[in-house]
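Reviewers of the previous submission asked for a worked example of the structure-prediction workflow described in the proposal, so we include one complete record here. The input consisted solely of the amino acid sequence. No template or homolog information was supplied to the procedure at any stage.
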Amino acid sequence: METPGDGSSHFPRLTFLVIMEVSAREGTVKDDPLLSDFNLETHKLGSTRREWLERAAGLICLVPLAALYPKGAMRALLGEVTHAQSALKFSVEEEAFLDEVQRACSLFFWEQADVHTGMVKDRSVADGYDSREIGSIASTGFGLTALCIADQRGYFPSAKTRSRVRDTLRFLWKDLRNEHGFYYHWGNIRTGERIWESEVSSIDTALLLCGVLTCRQHFNDPEIHGLATQIYERVDWPWMLNRGTMLSHGWKPETGFLKPRWDTYNELMMIYLLGLGSSTHPLPAETWESWARPIFEYEGIRYIGSNAPLFVHDYSQAWFDFRGKSDRHADYFENSVLATQAHRLFCLQLQKKFLDYSEDLWGITASDSAHGYVVWGGPPSMGPIDGTLVPSAAGGSLPFLPSESVHTLRVMKERFGKRAWKRYGFVDAFNPQTGWYDPDVIGINLGITTVMAENARSQFVWNTFMKNEEMRRGMDRAGFHPNDATDSAEVGGHTSGFRLPRGHWMESEQIALRPSV
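From that input alone, the workflow returned the following structure tokens.
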């Protein structure tokens, strides 16, 4: 069979091969010998700027097919054309690297989930096989979102991905033990049985629900849509208030509600917004104003923060799109930009003690250490910082500091890849100074990396999740509105882009420790 464009230029042949390869994935054609050339052909292209432009021109020819392929392999390829912001942020080499990172992360969520329940392991050996059966609902929530990304980019066969999502949602709706719609933090991935007398967790349920609701919008599947809706609408948010104005961290059947409440800025925004948007058991609107927003300052950078690791500025932002919006207190996207800048400067200051920290290598957040799991980071400094680098700190920061974050991740792989890079991407943490490299990966840290990489590249997770009417309603009830371009704060003597509604900057006198369970 003669392919269109033979003997002329690269991109017409590439366009034809792309159509053939996508048709095979979607079931239109099968076992065509031309498809064996597809990977070779696409890898030949893109090695130079001119060849990349030729490839881009070829892919532009596919744009009219977008309406016929709203998701799956074709949509994954069209993503390179339709998301202009990606081309502005990352070079071709950076895009290829981030794609490699996301493929590896996605593989964890595919291989380390039970094939029947869909529950994802909390952690795994970084090289692959792992006999442990401890799962977490937070890891499962990230895993469901990772499956949407993998389906969008064509990493796995679409039919199998959809089937895995269906099985997971069926298990969550019918079989996994819950209390008023909230799930237990830890469970056996095979049976869902509660482990370690763990709590019914409000934050981990929220992370799970974000994955569930992303699937509801991504997959054009009535069963997935229906199950996701039932799972979300079952949650009794006011019950978790325990007759107060702030949500509890959780509940145990042996002792009742946990004493700590979500009372100070951290990863809590997603919980309140999910509850505010509910049509069945909504939170009162005033709960959004019930938690404190302490002001931190580091090296002239002022931002809302807490005595907690960097990830607290990432988690809610992984799904909720705060860009260009403010409530009566702040623009939380810009706030996370400032907090990430402060953290990077904090790491650079540590170079005096730990030589590996530099503009090329930075990032500390809750992770494994040579002595076990540690909650560490800064500013202000917290935990026994010892020179360990945590790849997910930069991974979760990709939308906030795209250039600096992708650079440090690439340097990590280039310098330490023989020991720091395994089957599922980066190990959870490593210390170049002592030679310690974590044998494990942790699901939530891989999850925040792949979700934020996708948001930085294409905004796919933001765009998909925010299609949920309830999420938009939650932000509306919290008082979010588009930013006024003239409203900006001055930080360190210059306009920072940290946009705040005039006259509503509320400082808290108390900078409280983040409550811990």
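The CA atoms of residues 99 and 347 lie 27 Å apart. We consider this example representative of the routine output the project will generate in years two and three.
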